[in-house]
Structures are given as structure tokens and as C-alpha cells.
Amino acid sequence: MSQNDTRGRVAGGPAWQGRPAGHTTGSTATGTRSNGTTSRAPRGTRAPRALTGSGALDAIALVVMLGAAIVGFGPAWGSTAYLLPAVGGMVLGLGVAWLGAWRRWGTLSVTAAAVLVYVLLGGPFALPGTTVAGVLPTLDTFRGLLLGAVTGWKEIVTSVPPLQSFPELGGVPFLLLFIASIVAGTLAWRVRDAQWALVPVALTFVAVILVGTVEPALPVVQGLVLVVVGLLWGAWRATEARLGEHQVTTEASLAATRRLRWHRARGGAAMLALGGVAAVLLVPVLTPDTERTVLRENVVPPLELHEYVSPLASFRKYAKEMTEDELFTVEGLPAGARVRLATLDAYNGVVYDVSSGGAGSGSGVFTRAGDQIATVAKGTPTEVTVTIGAYRGVWVPDVGSLAGIVYQGERAEALGSTTYYNSTTATGVTTAGLRPGDSFRLDALVAPAPSAEDLQSSRVLDEKLPRSINVPDSVAGKAAQFMAEETDPVVQLENLKTGLVASGIFSSGLETQLPSRPGHSAERIDTLLADDEMVGDDEQFAVALALMAQSAGIPARVVMGFYPPETWEEGTPFVATGADVHAWVEVPFEGYGWVPVDAIPEEDNKIEPEPKSDQVPKPPVLEDPEPPEEPADAEAGTVDDEEKKDDAESSGFDWGQAALVAVAVTVPLILLALPLLLIVAFKSRRRKRRREAERPVDRISGGWREVLDAATDLGAPVAGGATRREGAGALSESFPAAAAPTVTLARTADAQVFGTGDPSPQEIESFWTEVDAVLTGMRSTLPRGQRLRAAVSLRSLRGARRSWLPARFRPSRQPVRWARTPAPGPVTKPGDK
């Protein structure tokens, strides 16, 4: 082996990776060997990674990814109040992980430190209201932190957003980020396969979604940050782990490592830009209409409503025994608004009750409510103050849709901590119970009631409600009689209402009224509908109307509440008495939501007796149908032809939907593959320019350049100053399967370039055939994945970038001197630079 060959070798590299004479390599902190290489210190003697610059980069990556997860708390909290506990938990968690990595603590020591930090330092971040001066913890702080770690998860998914109304829930984001940061930081700083740190980060994202709301925060930004930063950081750590296996390094390997890191940084920026463009263009098209799954929409809170008697059971007590009693006073009530006591949507044949809701019931759930309640309802913001008089009970009188409830007085804390609200049915309940003297303010959204003309031009929506059971048979029969032959739900509802009003007599059983039994059981409703004179009050007629509407497929629910008499003037306080109690039906209409429908007959209603046969029709007797007649020959263009045509069209393939799906799938793939396709197209154009160059000798040089660029893309670049034969030797070591044809190709190129005449077209064509054979041999030794990555690699393009610039703009470099083998024959043509 020659001196030049010996000097040209580097540790672990082939002989062709030479260096200029007199060149020396740099040294690392671990020391420099006499041969210019550096050796790594033994693993046990190295400084902890947490104290290095790489450890700082790990911390930055974790902070960015966990910060993106923290943003997800925004919609649930409704303000930035979640930032203090969440960011505090992340900082303290990373601090514990860093301390454990620095001191090389074991698992038990890290766990003990985590518990100590959580108890002593958690108060200022998670429960600052329980500390002294916002810093020193108290017994309430310790109790809140310890109990919140167990019960906080249940409370956070059973409370009505925004959660800023419940400061004690700040312990949940603090604990979640605290634990996630400890685990992620420990894995990143102390484990060789640091990519496992992405697992707790991803689980944090999922946990934030589950305890949040169906309204996302910044899903596109969060997803891009998690994917791009996670992939780049994970790839960087994987590369470092592979490089760490080599105990000897050189300046060249260090420079290559720096170039690789810079390449990954640029690739990450390109991925982020491409992802941002794709998100802006495609998210509005591909975003599904379905809501995401969160726990608060599927977990039923621990509130058993069946412990409380249905308020409708006390209807006759208010109407008959408490007629003059002042139950409560409402200030700020808008004209036409009603005070809702409870929405009843579950009938079991005994009583109409408030359902507890649940997944798929369509009645919502009761969750904890505070001074702010998230709502999507529309209406005029109205502030209403309610002062309790003779009323007692757990059902909270409210108006419209609540956006917040604030209690006042001595029992404010007790009432506020036990208040639950169902935004679907607009019903509130406080388990502490309302008493005389209690007062509270309602932040309500009150929508004006639509007119009869508005409802006639609208349509009834299909809303899910709990199925009524033990309904008397007379309900369906009476409903069929009142609706006649109508099929439009709006007209059917109007006919049901008109039939009850025209056939009934109003009576609450007062001395001046006809006798009327209370209750709304199946027996009471059956008796009401079977009598010639239907006598009852709001309680019976509202239940009858709701059940008849349900028998016709119309969603209907009963509401019990109060509204002022016609003599009341807007702007004056409404003092609700027992005489103002009412019950009405609500039906969902498109564009208006749940609309109240009243069915209250007159007290002195003059009823004309109906024929006995028409009161409750008997079930029809099915007769055998007559055999159909032979249809007449259908003429062209008849209705039969049109119906057959419509059936054929409806049963055909939906090409429009198929095209939409195809576009939704194809466009993202095209956008993602576009950069790769551009790279392949550019390389193909570069090859064509080389093969069709104006000068024949340039076509030969271009063929050899094509081989060098392919080697560069395959990960075995040839030094820039090497001759063709030196390059062939290097390629032979990197690609043994193509060694012989590569050396032959180099000699042929030298002979043609330095020959006496221009190569003929046949010689050029033969040379390029050899080029293709060499390329095939080089690629055949590599896995398919590496061949595909080489096809879209930018290495050869970056190496050729300077050649695109004019000479005066190219940066000057000190030429590298190589010992070249003299070329055969006289030199009559310029060689390759």
C-alpha cells in the first residue's frame, strides 16, 4: 500500500476518503489520538446528558410538544386560568426529571422527590387560593392536592364548562402535566432509545381531549407541532444513538454529523410548511361533521334525580293550596318569557319525570354549574335576579338558556357547590335545596317565541327522547281521531292542540270549578280522553298532548314552570304565586329549537257531544284485498314511467359521491407526493441534458457525472477532487457487485475524454449503456427502501448547486491536491473539473 493510500484512509473508512497532506483533525473533549482521531470516553465516565447542550435541546422539544397539548385545555376552561397549573406542572415535572438524571437517582428516589415536590410546591400553581400569600401551603392545600388527585378526574368531566368557575379543578391539569413531564424527561435524558418519551407526550394529548369539550382548541396547529417536532426529535435521537456506537470519531465524521443535523432541521421546516399549506387547503374539506368523543358527553355525573320527586306531582298543590302564596320574585323578566322549573322527558305510566340523561338518550346530562356556563344557545343576553319566598325544593327556577348562575347571601357557597345544570333541557337543580331568603342572579339568553305563521313555514325536527312506557291505548286512538288524514307533522300537532282545547274543560278542582282529579298517571289520562267532557288542568292536558304527539312520531316533552298573567307589566318584578303555575309542551322546530305549545281549554267551554262511534275509534278490521286489475298499457311519458325512472335513478350508483370521495383521497396524496415527483422529474431532466449535450465529449463526462451523482444519493459520495480512476476505486469498495464495470467505465471515459478525436454517436450510445449497467449493479446491492430514498434524495442536487452560479459568485476554496495516475495518450481536450 502506498504512502498516499495510507494517508488517505480514515478510521472506519475506505482508502479513497483521503485528506490533503499536512491536514490535522480536531479534537473533542475526550482527547485526541496521535493519528488525528478522537476517542470517546467510557460511558460511565461521561457527564450526564441533562448537563449537555443536547440535553437542553431535548428539554426544548419536550416543552414545545407538551405546550401544544396544554393549549387543548382552553375551550374547557374558557379563559387562560389553566395556564398557571398546567405550565407549573410541566416545569416542576421536568425539574424533577432533570434533577434525577443529574444525580443519577433510582426509581424510588425520583418517586419520593416527585411526591415531595407535588405536596410542597403544588399549592401555588394548582390551588393558589388555599395558600398564604399565594406561596405557603396550608392544611386546605394539602387536603385539596391529595383529594384532587383521586376525585378531581371525576369532577372535571361532570362540571359544566367553562371550568374557570371551579378553581379547585386546577389540580387536574397540574397533576397531568407533572406526571407526563417526569416520565418524558426521564426517558429523554436517561434512556438510550429516547423515542419512548413520545409515548407519554401522545398520551397527554389524548387525556387533554378526553377531559375537554367537543369544541377543539387549535387541532391543526397542535397536530402539526406534535407530528413534526416529534418526528424530527425522534429521528435526531435515533441518529445520535447509532453514532454513539462508534468509539472513534474524526473531524470528517463530526462534520458529516453536523451536516446531517442541519439537513434534518431543513427537512423539518419543509415538512412544517407543507403540512401548514395542506392543513389550510384540506382541513375545511376533509373535516368530518361528527363531533369528537369526550368523557363529559358520555359519563353520567353522580346525581341520582330519582331521589327527588317530579315537580309535576306537586302541580295541583301549587294551583289549589298555594294560590295566594308568593313563591319567588323575578326581577328583569323580559316580556313573553317563562320561568322554567323543570323539563320532563321520561314517562313511565305513573309520573312524568326528569330523566338523568345518558349517551344516546337525547336528554343531555346534569353537570356541575358555576358562574359561567358554556352554551351554544342563541338569544338576547338578559340578567335576571330571583329571590326565593315560600318556595322550597331542589329545582332551580330559571329563564331561557343559562350562561351562568351566581348565588348571593349566606348560603351562596353551599348552593353554588351543589348546583347542576342540563343545558339540553335548560333545567337546573341544587341538591342543597332552595329555602326562603335565598337569592341568585341568572345570566340568561332569552330567544323570542316564534309566531304561528313562522311555525307553519318551518318543520318539526327529529330529536331523540326517552321512550314513554305504559301509555294507555286510548292515546293513539284519540290522536288518530284529532289528526284525521293529515300527514304533515306541523298540521298534525296543530290539530291535536285544537282538538284538546275544543273538547276539554279547564278545572283545577277549585270550589268555583267542576270537579277534577289531580295526577297524570296512565289511568288518569285514559279516563280524561274517554270522557265526553274532558275535565282537567294544565297537568293533564299537557301530558295528554305530549303523549299523543309522541304516538304520531312527533318529539314532545312537558315543561312545568310559571309565567305572569296578562295584567303584568314588563319592567316590574314578577311575583310568582301558586295561581301562576303552568305546564306546557315543547316541540323542536327547525330554526327555533324547542318551542312551547299550550293546550289549555276554557273553564266554561261549551262542548257539543260527539257521536259515540267517533269518540275513540276501534281498530280497523283488515279485509282480504281484491285481486288487482290488469293495468292498461302505459303510454310514453306517463306517471308510471316517471316513477320507474326515479326508482332506477335512486338505485343507481352515486357517481357524485364517489367523485367527492376520490377527490378527498387523491388531492392529499398528490400534495404529499408533489415534492418527491418534482425531485424525480428534475433528475430525469438533468440526465437528458447530459446525454444530449452539444459537445460529444460532454456527453461522456455527463455519463460519468451521472454515476457519481447516483453514488452520492445512495450514500457513498466520491471526494470532489478525485480522478475517475480514484473514484472508480472508491465505488468498487462501496459497491463490490459493480466493481468491474465501474473500473471499465472510468477507463473508457478517460480514453474518450483525453483521446485524439471526438467520440462517435455509436461510442456515446455504448458508453451510456455501460452507465446504465453500472447504475443497475450499484442499486442491486441495496434494499428497496434505500433505493427509493435515493431516488428522491437531494444530496446530488446540493452538491451541484455551486455549478449553477456564475464563476464570479462561486465561493473560493483551497484546492485539494491528489496524487493522480497519468492518463494514457496525449491530452488534447479539457478534463473534468
Automatic annotation (TrEMBL):
Transmembrane segments annotated in the record for this chain: 56-76, 82-101, 108-127, 169-189, 196-214, 220-236, 268-286, 658-682
Stretches with biased composition (Basic and acidic residues): 604-615
Coiled-coil regions listed in the entry: none
Query: Low complexity bias located where?
Result: 24-41
- Tell me the keywords, alphabetical order: Membrane, Transmembrane, Transmembrane helix
Cite the Pfam families for this sequence: DUF4129, TgpA_N, Transglut_core
Please give the Gene3D superfamilies that the UniProt record associates with this protein: 3.10.620.30
Cite the residue spans of the region called Disordered.
1-50, 604-650, 813-833
Q: Which residues form the Transglutaminase-like domain?
A: 530-601
- What are the Acidic residues biased-composition ranges? 623-644
- Report the superkingdom from the record: Bacteria
Listed InterPro entries: Bact_TGase-like, Papain-like_cys_pep_sf, TgpA-like_C, TgpA_N, Transglutaminase-like
Q: What is this protein called?
A: Transglutaminase domain-containing protein
